């Protein structure tokens, strides 16, 4: 009798867990579709060839002004890790037809704990969706996380930018946030100023292969 009850409880627990995962997955996909719909509406108003910014809540929660003569298309999703953004980013690029693209990822991977090798592969796959020269923004060295891991992840992001002839942009510092992660008013201004300086650098090479050795070398802003 006890075995039957235990088996039943395990079955119920598993069903609840599976339902939760599927429910979260469904809600996540629904939200992605809504975000893509908003981006499509913006492009219909301003035209293609704008600046697409792919990231997490640090991006999504910002009110972004025009940067370097381009309208920023906000493709941030709160809570997203690099692997979560793969399908969404690909769809966003196809939908918006940007002339510049910015990747601002890694904070949630750092917060949740990550295998550096796996994260590097996922982030490389994400950046390789863009055939031009990316702008890649570094991650905040969050107090709750291992600063050494943050440094290693930023080294990966800098290397990705350099190898693709793009630019690595310094991420937020702790004093530029209001909660250790998200930009304060001053932090948002500094973040956007760094991005503006970066997009005035290497111009896009839309027909270049992702790992092309041609073009200017990557740099930091």
Reconstruct the topology from this structure:
Elements: H1 2-46, E1 51-55, H2 57-60, E2 72-76, H3 86-96, E3 100-104, H4 107-112, H5 116-127, E4 135-137, H6 147-163, E5 167-169, H7 185-199, E6 219-220
Parallel strand pairs: 1-2, 1-3, 3-4, 4-5, 5-6
Plain-language structure description:
With 221 residues, this protein is an alpha/beta fold. The chain has a single domain, classed as SGNH hydrolase (Rossmann fold), CATH 3.40.50.1110. Helix content is 50%, strand content 10%. The protein has a six-stranded parallel sheet with strand order 2-1-3-4-5-6, sandwiched between helices. Helix 1 (2-46) runs parallel beside helix 3 and helix 5 (116-127) runs parallel beside helix 6 (147-163).
Summarize the entry for a quick read.
The protein has 221 residues and is of the alpha/beta class. Helix content is 50%, strand content 10%. Mean pLDDT is 83; it is low at 1-24 and 203-217.
